[in-house]
Amino acid sequence: MKTEISEKLFERAVRVMPGGVNSPVRAFGSVGGTPRFIERAKGAILYDIDGNEYTDYIGSWGPMILGHNDDRVLEAVMKQMEKGLSFGAATGIEVEMAELIGELVPCVDMIRMVNSGTEAVMSAVRAARGFTGRDKIIKFEGCYHGHADAMLVKAGSGVMTAGVPDSAGVPQGCARDTLTAEYNNLKSAESLFDAYPNEIACIIVEPVAANMGVVVPENGFLQGLRDMCDRNGALLIFDEVITGFRLGLDGAAGHFGVIPDLVTYGKIIGGGMPVGAYGGRRDIMSVVSPLGNVYQAGTLSGNPIAMRAGITQLSILKNEPQIYDRINMLGQRLRAGLRSAIEKSGLPYTVNGIGSLSCLYFADKPVYDYVSARKSDTVKFAEYFRHMLSCGHYIGPSQYEAVFISGAHTESDIDRFIADAEEYLKA
Ligand code: HOZ
Predict the structure, then answer these.
(1) Which segments within 227-362 are labelled E, that is strand?
(2) Does ligand 1 come within 6 angstroms of the Cβ of 401?
(3) pLDDT of residue 165
(4) Is the whole-model pTM more than 0.85?
């Protein structure tokens, strides 16, 4: 596989950008080798600048549920672009988007558009604090909620990959009010309510933890959090940046039948364009400025191009819900194939997943939280990653990211993936 052009670009990039990238995991730091510089993408395929093709299992970290550059989304965006790129003023498209999300997700009475999942979480937590008049929040070890100061405590994704779940530069004051509990362990969250009665504003959780690989909530975990919040006068926030409109039209809330007070979204509602949003109960969202006194604003919030891309993808998913059957079936096929390859190899590895999200852990025990995820052999993962990349499968360059499947993948893509993974496991 030729990589000269990517290598040259990376040499230039490291001189002018920290680590040569605009987001740390992309630097391939934990897997070795040169990041591939991507030129274009269509369907399930990424094309790099050296002319290599990869079947993509990242999908821009989730949003490309229809696959890359879907013709219908592209056409809608082009038409919208002719009308202007940004107005910084109210538009009808924002109303269309808010109504559509409200229709698809019953717990969203009101919603506010922002520009990323990070912003959505930061703003939702502020609204929860404003609504309850309390400062402390609970998050779970290994859950990643973007890079706002208060969220970089025992975080997943790139911080976990780098092996430093807390970031430098976060003032003690900002982190002091972030309490952490163990994922899938109700008692550990309950003990925080016991320690800080009437001080906790909210629990924020990834309803499926998809930034420490993929950790599925055990039966009763999410409902237990719901009940705990109700008993303690705290709010429950689902961070659905990854699960929203992916596990189904009504996301993890619908899938697990547990209703949060607030929900946060990211890139997925922009069909890959830079978007985020937070929404939920009318009484809570009514604290947001200018209706209430919790301030939050943004020139690019509700950007017309991003809204159009998002509305188009969401409308296609609404009108063609069979896409979910398909991506869930492909996810199931992938996990079954990997499990059988592991069994044949006699190795003790673990496959987790749900719907179109999967993760092969190089761990010999079940993975159900941060500590068990960390037991995975990341050196083996790095070897596996390089093997898969050389076979043309582009997966997240970290043990702690999910494998994403889109409607553009085929059964034979998945079978090739399994066959190549099996070859690595056998060797
Ligand atoms: N934090 C993202 C994955 N969970 C990575 C984003 C990126 O590198 O684009």
Answers:
(1) 235-239, 262-265, 276-280, 350-354, 357-361
(2) yes
(3) 67
(4) yes
